[in-house]
Design brief:
The protein folds into two domains: 3-60, no CATH class; 67-130, no CATH class. Helix content is 64%, strand content 0%. It has helices at 3-10, 17-26, 35-44, 50-60, 67-84, 88-97, 113-130. The protein is globular and about 45 Å long. The two termini are 14 Å apart.
Length: 132
């Protein structure tokens, strides 16, 4: 499956969204719950919202793509992406906006590089654990 590429994209690594969509469509699961996602990716391609990648990942991991789970994973990936991009303002915004969803992450000063890296690593690990 294209999980690795999807995860790398969502966690802020240098992967293009069109490549992710192409990989998803090339390596389709036979799970009936995934079919609507594939139709949507065919229809909108790279214009698909990142939440659709997250919801598909949940479905393919055998989990419900409920709003709370999608929001939590979106918050975790937003931390990883903003942190890896060096976007301190974006990181601060996510930490403020999604505070309740991120309570289990270590407290960190985003202005201290080591603490910021620890936060990014913790968010990435929590994302992977939620899909295990």
């Amino acid at each position: 499956m294209a999980f690795e590429l999807v995860d790398r994209y969502l966690l802020g690594e240098a992967v293009s969204k069109p490549d992710v969509v192409a990989a998803i469509l090339a390596e389709r699961s036979t799970q009936p719950a995934a079919a609507p996602f594939y139709r949507a990716f065919e229809a909108v391609g790279a214009r698909a919202a990142d939440e659709s990648f997250i919801a598909l990942r949940l479905v393919l991991a055998g989990k419900a793509a409920e709003d709370g789970a999608v929001r939590r994973l979106r918050a975790l990936t937003s931390i990883a992406r903003a942190g890896r991009a060096g976007d301190r303002a974006g990181l601060a915004l996510v930490l403020k906006r999604d505070r309740a969803l991120l309570e289990d992450l270590p407290a960190a000063s985003i202005d201290v590089p080591e603490e910021r890296e620890r936060l990014i690593a913790a968010a990435s690990a929590a994302y992977r654990e939620a899909l295990a």
